[in-house]
């Protein structure tokens, strides 16, 4: 499986951010069962599934084992996998992160933090190309305080747009058909920023977090991947398979109106 195949699927990404407190006295077995049920039920309606690494890491060794099991299960179901870890480091450490989440899981994607510079991102770009995967670099994030750094002016334009332009140029080396393996993260909570980034980086897949609970609405357009976690994985604030199906249908309906 090549991650870029996700761009030909329904433009909805399921975010899996496990909350053990919602899964009773034995959270891991219940969480495993519920997650697999949701993945199987929603698979035809999804572009990909995004696993937020922090929530699995917080569960210790059992959580990491669960992550590997769910990622493998998603792949068996034909679902592209995106690891949301916002990784970024220099030299051999960047190479190790790339090995762990891209080369060890061919065809998967990983979110990246660009703060350390282009040389720190290069190992991830190469690994994505080698493995048939992709990367999504943080540009304009969905949180309210994103503008603290991301909106600073650089050459009479906001930093996030400068970054998008630079990465669009870098991404040309990693084009596969119409799309690059170098994508960008732009919060659905900032639709004007989505439009500006799309104009600056026409070949970059855009991951749009913040749909649903953070107030973002699904956005239409080629190469846009609308990501929803709480509103889709825990509709009504709890595990609810029927509610997850209803929420997915509602989000997809909004994209064809």
Automatic annotation (TrEMBL):
Active site, UniProt feature: 86 (proton donor)
EC number: 4.1.1.23
SMART domains the record matches: OMPdecase
Top EC class, one word: lyase
Domain named Orotidine 5'-phosphate decarboxylase: residues: 11-251
Catalytic activity: orotidine 5'-phosphate + H(+) = UMP + CO2
GO biological process, one term: 'de novo' UMP biosynthetic process
Keywords from the named record: Decarboxylase, Lyase, Pyrimidine biosynthesis
GO terms for MF: orotidine-5'-phosphate decarboxylase activity
PROSITE patterns: OMPDECASE
Record HAMAP family: OMPdecase_type2 (MF_01215)
Protein name: Orotidine 5'-phosphate decarboxylase
Lineage, uppermost ranks: Bacteria, Thermotogati, Deinococcota, Deinococci, Thermales
């Amino acid at each position: 499986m090549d991650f870029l195949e996700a761009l030909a699927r329904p433009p909805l990404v399921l975010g899996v951010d496990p909350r053990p407190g919602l899964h009773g006295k034995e959270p891991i077995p219940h969480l495993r069962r519920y997650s697999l049920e949701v993945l199987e039920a929603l698979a035809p309606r999804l572009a990909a599934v995004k696993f937020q690494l922090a929530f699995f890491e917080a569960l210790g060794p059992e959580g990491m084992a669960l992550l590997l099991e769910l990622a493998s299960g998603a792949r068996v179901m034909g679902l592209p996998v995106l690891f949301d870890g916002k990784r970024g480091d220099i030299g051999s450490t960047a190479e190790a992160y790339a090995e762990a989440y891209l080369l060890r899981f061919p065809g998967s994607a990983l979110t990246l933090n660009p703060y350390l510079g282009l040389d720190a991102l290069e190992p991830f770009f190469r690994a994505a190309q080698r493995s048939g995967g992709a990367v999504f670099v943080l540009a304009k994030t969905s949180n309210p305080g994103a503008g603290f750094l991301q909106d600073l002016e650089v050459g009479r334009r906001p930093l996030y747009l400068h970054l998008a332009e630079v990465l669009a140029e870098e991404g040309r080396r990693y084009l596969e058909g119409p799309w690059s393996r170098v994508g960008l993260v732009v919060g659905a909570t900032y639709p004007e920023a989505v439009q500006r980034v799309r104009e600056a980086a026409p070949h970059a897949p855009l991951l749009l977090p913040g749909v649903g609970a953070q107030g973002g609405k699904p956005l239409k357009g080629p190469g846009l991947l609308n990501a929803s976690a709480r509103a889709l994985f825990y509709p009504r604030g709890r595990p609810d398979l029927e509610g997850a199906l209803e929420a997915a249908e509602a989000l997809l309906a909004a994209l064809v109106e």
